[in-house]
TrEMBL record, chains A, B:
CDD domains: LuxR_C_like (cd06170), REC_NarL-like (cd17535). The modification 4-aspartylphosphate is found at D55. This is Response regulator. PANTHER family: TRANSCRIPTIONAL REGULATORY PROTEIN NARL-RELATED, TWO-COMPONENT RESPONSE REGULATOR. It holds the Pfam family Response_reg. It comes from Nocardioides astragali. It comes from the Bacteria.
Amino acid sequence: MTIRVLVVDDQTMVRAGFRLLLADEADIDVVAEASTGRDAVTQAARLRPDVILMDIRMPEMDGLEATRRILGSDTTARVLILTTFDLDDYVFEALRAGASGFVLKDDPPEQLLAAVRTIAAGEALLSPTVTRRVIRRFATVRRQAPPAAVADLTPREMEVLRLITRGLSNAEIGRELFISDTTVKTHVTRLLQKLDLRDRAQAIVLAYQTGLFDEA
Amino acid sequence: MTIRVLVVDDQTMVRAGFRLLLADEADIDVVAEASTGRDAVTQAARLRPDVILMDIRMPEMDGLEATRRILGSDTTARVLILTTFDLDDYVFEALRAGASGFVLKDDPPEQLLAAVRTIAAGEALLSPTVTRRVIRRFATVRRQAPPAAVADLTPREMEVLRLITRGLSNAEIGRELFISDTTVKTHVTRLLQKLDLRDRAQAIVLAYQTGLFDEA
DNA sequence: GCCCGCTTCCATCCCCCGGCGGAGCCGCTC
DNA sequence: GAGCGGCTCCGCCGGGGGATGGAAGCGGGC
């Protein structure tokens, strides 16, 4: 079982370099190259590779858009982003697009080989500097401000708050919890004054900004 | 320059194992061990290690809480979570706590060594299975459904929507944009019908679930 | 020039939301 | 048993939100 790889980069020399690097590996086979995002999409559909080494900055269609299209279609391919830049925008857009890995071109070659094998196995791998960015995103963006008052909401009030953050009206919440809408209003009123908020809209904002119901 | 390591695990055998594994490495020095989270916090303050290998499940205080306390204090230490379980809750809580890495106990030993050196260098590293979880979090939780209709909101409507997602009332939005509140209502009405939503609450939910205004 | 879309404003209407006061029930603790 | 806190329900009221219809200026495109 060899890993079938498609190399996508607009620079001929870069493609040649990758091909050389991967040529020595018995379990890896470069089946084709593409020089634009558009080309990558068609090649991916035709050859159905296991792993796609994808550059980001390319003419015609960039690597992010190509990744979205490829992964949006019927495929088992996994995309490994391979770029010179580790800018935030690229990283997070790539992950949102569904890429399985993100390696920088100046990472050591072994790193690239390991990444190809890792994502071919269905796992995922990020370059250390990229990993740091991703973690910082979790550590900062998400824990804005744990609103202490949330702690002394009763279980019922928490439940109501959760449904509010789904966009439900009081009547809908009542049907959901098998209680009357007037009761829901009671809970809402109390919950708002406990959290010192004006209306349900602010409650939704608070919940999302502090990641109250992230898990669900 | 040796990397000074603190090993934290409630099982004696596990600690001994790590000590043995790290003993062979010239650039790594295990300076102490701790068997509880509470112990870890005091040892970290006293010895000021570079890297802390932290188990999660421990008596007295778990590794996540210990991590929070250590990183919350005045320290340059970096925490590498090392556990048997890669449950979602653990992973995301650990990253939020500020851990620099997450390695599983059944990962190959080289992985652990690489992780220690990587995070000592200020970078970050996650086990491939953990990386996959994190990425999926980005790929799914964040891009639930790009609401196509958002594209044909006018600039003004986008602006109003942005302020709605801050929890502002129509009157407040009007003051913010120097227009009357009746005009705001017009924009709101149109924006809601374009997005096929009932009220501003649902608009806020949509915006956050699709990450409309992530960046700001 | 004409039309269309965006933006602004107005009046009117209805309904949901949220505040306020009051009530009964349950289960817990003292 | 008395008391308390949580959950349930009711009525009343005011205000904000959202729908509808109408109007006007302004810009760009045909």
